[in-house]
């Protein structure tokens, strides 16, 4: 859109901070103590708290059956069809029996229906969360701990029992962390996980998921590993044992993978014409189960199958308190990652459909889902992007779709789950790998970030490499620390600019970037692109002195040196005068300063006149030295024979300051002191009101620096500096009256 060229006229007086506050009737904003409202009790407040923490009571009475019910039913059925195979597969990814994936697809989904605020996200099993849980279960309960007999076979029943207890206890701890953080309104913690960090982390997690499924694709028995470099060792072991692969398992995985890819391509082609996507995963699972049962893949070809799936729900079980200490670190990491994924997806859908998601309540809802789910033998869950997109595209309008999908899963758990006992694990692994496409496509971020923002690319790469090499928990910690350190480093390396006036405007821009911008003669305008605080205050001062084109520190040292020499010379003259005076008094010669020498009554008249003349000369020199020391121009650069700066005023554009600390205040005071030493007056401009208040609280303003040195804009400061130069004649005014 092309802007019309119009004249812009503003006439107002020059305005410093004092005049601005007087004109605008500035008063400090009254402080509000929000904590006081926490202890207020009324019926309206009780109702508001109830609706805030149990949102279903707010939106369910207004639910439109005619407009929303059909869409929610179709969306719930579509999500349930996806949830079934993903639940079975992701339980395998977590190192648990597949039926526990079905439990994790039922209880948390229904709890989120009651407490969640997002209408479109699909809560349940998710690959990243499952692989994080799997890293915990396999590290704390490795296969080596359950070897039995001389043939060193693994007692799978005992191993699975311990791992289920670990996963459910971990889910309870994750839920406690999330609920606690939500109740203290700590939802903002997710802001420290930037988008490049989350995308790099999920990409690395998808690589870990892919590697972890290779043992099911090739039918290999691998050692359980955890900790730094465990992924590298796993890849090496897979490569070492490839000759031991089970051919039947590899063929089963390849056929299932090709079938899933073809169905996904068909869904993409026919998206416009299909009311809901073709359930490729469900059809593949049903077909693979039938073929496995009919052909006998396990006894004939050695293909590993899911095994017995008990019908019905398991009774609740209390978590194991003795496991808390070993699981605390893992639980906090999983809690933060799960919430970050859920809230990022929730905000995307909320923005798209025009409603608001409460991040703190989302934290509570997700925490209750994991807490109650953990009591019922579930492992930690979050939300799935693929299922959420299906729920939205199938016509889902509210979390009624989630409730419908959980009821379908309940029917499968109670009646149909046992039918999948002959399902090959290689098919589940193929389904997991095919569903990783979306996350693996995030490798294209490298190219886009290289073009747009290389600092974000650095965060992405460090997060990815750290997560791959150091595992998921330590990798996330390294990524967060690195991104925060990078923020600090970027504030230490801002862009420093000397500003010039754009012709016929009151706008000042960097003279290095704007060829028409001209520095105002006699006035130097300096700006930093970042706020000034303890980490970069010294760098700010150094850059200012460098950009001004004057060696300020050298000039000050030379000035002090010459003043010191002048004082020493004066002292020597005084001592010489005192000695001469004492010698004259000893010879009975009277010397009167500033009068004529009277007649001497001595035979040696010529000697007396010479001595009197010498004494008068010394005293006159001393007097003149004292007058020079007292005179205002006696210590000027010009009087001392030093070069003067080519500008008489310095304007600091402080518009980038968002806060100040004590180090910043001291640095600003030092700037005023140093530049005044070299006869340059300093002004500040464009400070925000909170920054001014902080300067006042920090005792920045005193007898030498007042609010009259702080101006509303750079243009005001420049005009004032031109009208009131510190020394020398006023420079020609190049401004236009705007």
UniProtKB/TrEMBL annotation:
Look up keyword Transmembrane and say if it applies.
Answer: yes
Looking up InterPro entries in the UniProt record yields: S04_transporter_CS (IPR018045), SLC26A/SulP_dom (IPR011547), SLC26A/SulP_fam (IPR001902), STAS_dom (IPR002645), STAS_dom_sf (IPR036513)
Gene Ontology cellular-component terms for this entry are:
membrane
Molecular-function annotations in GO = secondary active sulfate transmembrane transporter activity
Q: Which CDD domains match?
A: STAS_SulP_like_sulfate_transporter (cd07042)
Q: Where is the composition biased (Basic and acidic residues)?
A: 598-619
This protein is called what?
Solute carrier family 26 member 6 isoform X3
Which organism is the protein's source? Answer: Ursus maritimus
Query: What taxonomic classification does the UniProt entry list for its organism?
Result: Eukaryota, Metazoa, Chordata, Craniata, Vertebrata
């Amino acid at each position: 859109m092309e802007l019309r060229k119009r004249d812009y006229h503003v006439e107002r007086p020059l305005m410093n901070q004092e005049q601005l506050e007087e004109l605008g009737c500035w008063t400090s904003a009254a402080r509000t103590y929000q904590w006081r409202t926490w202890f207020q009790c009324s019926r309206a407040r009780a109702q508001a708290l109830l609706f805030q923490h149990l949102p279903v009571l707010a939106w369910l009475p207004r639910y439109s059956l005619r407009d929303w019910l059909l869409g929610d039913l179709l969306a719930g059925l579509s999500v349930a069809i996806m949830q079934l195979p993903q639940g079975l597969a992701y339980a395998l990814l977590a190192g648990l029996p597949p039926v526990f994936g079905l439990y994790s697809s039922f209880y948390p989904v229904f709890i989120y229906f009651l407490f969640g605020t997002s209408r479109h996200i699909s809560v349940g099993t998710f690959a990243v969360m499952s692989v994080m849980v799997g890293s915990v279960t396999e590290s704390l309960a490795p296969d080596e701990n359950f070897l039995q007999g001389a043939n060193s076979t693994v007692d799978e029943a005992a191993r699975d029992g311990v791992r289920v207890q670990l996963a459910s206890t971990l889910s309870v701890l994750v839920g406690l962390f999330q609920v606690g953080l939500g109740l203290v309104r700590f939802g903002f913690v997710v802001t420290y996980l930037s988008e490049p960090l989350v995308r790099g982390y999920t990409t690395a997690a998808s690589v870990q998921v892919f590697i972890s499924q290779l043992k099911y694709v090739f039918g290999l028995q691998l050692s359980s590993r955890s900790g730094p470099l465990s992924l590298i060792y796993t890849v090496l072991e897979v490569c070492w044992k490839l000759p031991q692969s089970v051919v039947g398992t590899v063929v089963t995985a390849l056929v299932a993978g090709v079938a899933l890819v073809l169905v996904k391509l068909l869904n993409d082609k026919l998206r416009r014409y299909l009311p809901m996507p073709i359930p490729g995963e469900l059809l593949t699972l049903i077909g693979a189960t039938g073929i496995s049962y009919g052909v006998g893949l396990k006894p004939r070809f050695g293909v590993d199958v899911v095994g017995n799936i008990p019908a019905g729900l398991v009774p609740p079980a209390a978590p194991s308190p003795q496991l808390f200490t070993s699981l605390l670190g893992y639980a906090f990491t999983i809690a933060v990652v799960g919430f970050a994924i859920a809230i990022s997806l929730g905000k995307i859908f909320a923005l798209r459909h025009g409603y608001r998601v409460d991040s703190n309540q989302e934290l509570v809802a997700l925490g209750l889902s994991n807490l109650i789910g953990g009591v019922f033998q579930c492992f930690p869950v979050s939300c799935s992007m693929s299922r959420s997109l299906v729920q939205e595209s199938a016509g889902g309008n509210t979390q009624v779709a989630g409730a419908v999908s959980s009821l379908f899963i309940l029917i499968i758990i109670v009646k149909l789950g046992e039918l999948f006992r002959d399902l090959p694990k290689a098919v589940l692994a193929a389904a997991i790998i095919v569903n990783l496409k979306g996350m693996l496509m995030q490798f294209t971020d490298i190219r886009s970030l290289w073009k747009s923002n290389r600092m974000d690319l650095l965060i992405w790469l460090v997060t990815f490499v750290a997560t791959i090499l150091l595992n998921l928990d330590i990798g996330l910690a390294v990524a967060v620390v690195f991104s925060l350190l990078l923020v600090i480093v970027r504030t230490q390396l801002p862009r420093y600019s000397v500003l010039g006036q754009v012709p016929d405007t009151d706008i000042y821009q960097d003279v290095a970037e704007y060829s028409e911008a001209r520095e105002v003669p006699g006035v130097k305008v300096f700006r930093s692109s970042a706020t000034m605080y303890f980490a970069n205050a010294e760098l700010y001062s150094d850059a200012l002195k460098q950009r001004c084109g004057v060696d300020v520190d050298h000039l000050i040292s030379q000035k002090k040196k010459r003043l010191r020499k002048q004082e020493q010379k004066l002292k020597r003259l005084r001592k010489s005068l005192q000695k001469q005076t004492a010698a004259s008094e000893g010879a009975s010669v009277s010397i009167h300063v500033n009068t004529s020498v009277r007649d001497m009554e001595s035979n040696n008249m010529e000697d007396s006149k010479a001595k009197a003349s010498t004494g008068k000369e010394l005293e006159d020199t001393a007097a003149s030295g004292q007058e020079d020391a007292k005179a205002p121009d006696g210590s000027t650069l010009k009087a001392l024979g030093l070069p003067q700066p080519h500008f008489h005023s310095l304007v600091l554009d402080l518009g980038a300051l968002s806060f100040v600390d004590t180090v910043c205040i001291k640095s600003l005071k030092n700037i005023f002191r140093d530049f005044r030493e070299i006869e340059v007056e300093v002004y500040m401009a464009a400070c925000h009101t909170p920054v001014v208040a902080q300067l006042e609280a920090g005792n920045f303003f005193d007898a030498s620096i007042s609010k009259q040195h702080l101006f509303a804009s750079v243009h005001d400061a420049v005009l004032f500096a031109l009208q009131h130069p510190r020394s020398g004649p006023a420079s020609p005014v190049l401004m236009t009256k705007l």
